[in-house]
Amino acid sequence: MTIETKAETTLGITPSQTIGPFFAYALTPRAYGGPELATEQVATDGIAGERIRVEGTVYDGDGLPVGDAMIEIWQADPQGRFHASGNAGFTGFGRAETTSEGRYFFETVRPGGLPGPGGARQAPHLTVSVFARGVLVRLATRIYFSDEAANDGDPVLALVPAGRRDTLIAQRGGDGVFRFDICLQGESETVFFEA
Amino acid sequence: MSLIYPPQSLQAHPLNASPEYKSTLKRAPSQPLILLPHTLSETTGPVFGHVGVAEGDSDLTRQHEGEPLGERIIVTGRVLDEDGRPVPHTLVEIWQANAAGRYVHVRDQHPAPLDPNFTGAGRAVTDADGRYRFVTVKPGAYPWRNHHNAWRPAHIHFSLFGASFLSRVITQMYFPGDPLFKYDPIFQSVTDEKARDRLVSRFDIDTTEPEWALGYQFDIVLRGRNATPLEEPHDH
Ligand SMILES: [Fe+3]
Hints:
Chain A is mostly beta strands.
């Protein structure tokens, strides 16, 4: 199959700008009593699957917490199906603001594996967007899980230099919680993707 | 119908490392971004339709008992893809300062008055032609300490989803002819002049309603082009 596009009608896209420091009363308005479109609770009642909690801290290049970031996640359900492709009741979309200490969490179900490029299987993962004051364009990353054997064959992790792959893998602690810190810059900088 | 997302389109965006905007200095990744293949995780995304959007969410002047102070405006436009086709039934979220340049946000310390009749948050869903419409007041400019005498040009923050996570964008809409443009490192972080112009709304006399409100048109172009799969040649 080949792909054909009509070049003559291309419009330029609208450029991105920073979310700024003052988005909360519109996008994550719990503290303001506003209606919430989506929250940290991605697993709604009645969704089958293993309940997981992912939490972490967002840091800047000085190792200081980023207290004005918004994190969004997007994921498949435990069978590897996305919302649009027919699962019921599970949106797969979560949105959280960081606390003044830079902390965030999500409560969701563990996603299933997915088809990937070239017939390879993708290991279970969450798709992550980071927005913050001082971030002009959405930062795209992924959260993989430390206890998934399929990580070894994941075609996206394979694109990442071996020494940096750990920044994409949430580590499961003794309490069962997956810990995933996001470092915007610096020695342990999280891998970000051009998507 | 399916979409493709040419990576060249991303060139319209600013660089995260834009040092004139000081907050980027410690927040921009220093390692190169890794090119991600577009898998189902990227080419799908949340679809909101009318979920969570209430009647009246798009009129920011009627969310309280009284009317907010300031210059009443209508902001409307179409959400399009890169081929100029409308993006219907997509969520548009906005937030802004009040007419005095003050946000409701608890951390905004600018000594300008809050307006008890204005919160400054709105939502709308585009119609079948990709059109949205908000009624609000014109936001004021506000100081922000990025550099000496730093003032943001008047702007409204916009958040959109589109067809997938590849079209997800958060941006800002500006007003035509603002004298602060040339001093604003956030606006100037978009280095291509044509791309920068796409952040500026257009005053429109036909959108303007007599004796009531000035009208501004602001079209938003999201990533995504029509992918026409051609059938394999028949081999019989
Ligand atoms: Fe602002």
